[in-house]
Amino acid sequence: YGDNGKRLQYGPTAQNVEAVFPDFAGHNEKGETINYDWGALMFVGLRAIQELNTKIEQLEKKLAKKEN
What we know:
- There is one protein chain.
- The chain contains two helices and two strands; from the N terminus they run αββα.
- 54% of the residues lie in helices and 10% in strands.
- With 68 residues, the protein is mostly helical.
- A two-stranded antiparallel ribbon has the order 1-2.
């Protein structure tokens, strides 16, 4: 935030993101990883949540059948 670290920030580091999604990482003129496209990462996370929700719904249906 430009406050010399006074505010605690949450989330993955650019290096963590780059390890999984290299195309999302931004680099400075020295080639050092300095930032990432958080918007793109957010959509990957949302898709993962959708997939997990689908799996949960399928498991709930199987469980309901077994209980009957």
